[in-house]
Target: Cytochrome ubiquinol oxidase subunit I
Amino acid sequence: MFETFDALLLARIQFAFTVSFHFIFPAFSIGLASYLAVLEGLWLKTGKAIYLDLFRYWIKIFAVAFAMGVVSGIVMSYQFGTNWSVFSDKAGPVIGPLMAYEVLTAFFLEAGFLGVMLFGMSRVGKKLHFAATCMVALGTFVSAFWILSVNSWMQTPVGFEMGANGQFLPGPSWWDIVFNPSFPYRLVHTVIAAYLTTAFVVGGVGAWHLLKDASNGHARKMFSMAMWMAALVAPIQIFAGDMHGLNTLEHQPQKVMAMEGHYQSHPDGAPLILFGIPDSAEKRVKYAIEIPKASSLILKHDLNAPLAGLDTIPDDEEPPVGIIFWSFRIMVGIGFAMLGIGAWSLLARMRRKLYDWHWLHRAALVMAPSGFVAVIAGWITTEVGRQPYVIYNLLRTSDAASPLDAPAVGASLAAFVVVYFAVFSVGTWYILKLMSGPPHTGEAGVKRTEKGPIRTAGITPGPTQNPGGSQPVPGNEGEV
Model:
């Protein structure tokens, strides 16, 4: 079935498919873990039960999303050894320790405190439970820290030495590797994106319940908190994205050329192309709608600053312009839409109509999944813009793949598609079902079964016998 396909292309599609599924859940759980810590902290500080109710409402959703993120992440990492064994061999001395640090820090924090956070509120003190919630939130951030450090090193590799066998070996300082030139910008931009993603999900859920019952105090509170986040953080994200773009221009200029659609160099100021159809065969953007010299103003802060184009890059090093051009615009467009919702909510708040303007609620509901679309579009911009390299300017993607035939890669890709859509569709449906129920006073939180653990090994206890007969003693039926 897959004999006529290219094995490298199938391997790239498989990794893109699995990482796109995976990225959705950490982007949500990073922000939601922090939101839960804020809710519990406000409950402890104010004593208001509404914060505890919202905490218990959202912790159920967090538990499902966190579990799906862990499962999809584990599966994704196996591909380094199956489809990308050459990359693993060459970059392993640098990449391996950084990913191990994630396990030793983030996973240990999350594994150590997640059970207390989910099930321990009635078993430990309030302060200890709050500490566990904060540790889980910290763990999600630490996990993002290490993964983004790995990815950023692949984008801007420094601090390494080349071994005799072609391996990338750590140099004298790990600090140079961890805090590589693009890492601080990528970390800030991605973590803020996760917070905004969560804010708009929370805001969308609050808007949904306000449209059904505008008097629901719990829905009012979550909607108000989400809109504060949108109004205050969306402008910061736009500024952080601009800083990240300037850093990318310095270290990965051809990526920015593709994002801007600049096939040709502009010695006297480059236009900002708003929309158009990139044509790599003709080396131009057809039907371009542009603002003269605005790109130079944004990227160089000078209307007449020269900007190099893709005509300065060899054709075999040119990234796929069409994909990057549009994914970048989707990400930026959603960012400004978030800014608009935040500004709209401020106007409604000033006029004391935050809970009465149903068109604002409808817009927030439509924008609920926008954060997920934005983070996927941003990931596509970052990763496709690095092509044709997996380690920028040093190791080509075509040289990093395992020596596998197309049918082998295609079969595993087909299996991933079937299993992922089956499993994660059910998980997503369950999350939406939880969200569809309105938050209320006396939320139960995560329920714990009273039957105890299921025994999967050894001898399962049977019925307890009477000394003189074969009938079990009542109440000792030996539940499994």
Remarks:
- Residues 7-264+311-436 form one domain.
- The two ends are 46 Å apart (CA to CA).
- Residues 464-480 have pLDDT under 50 and may be disordered.
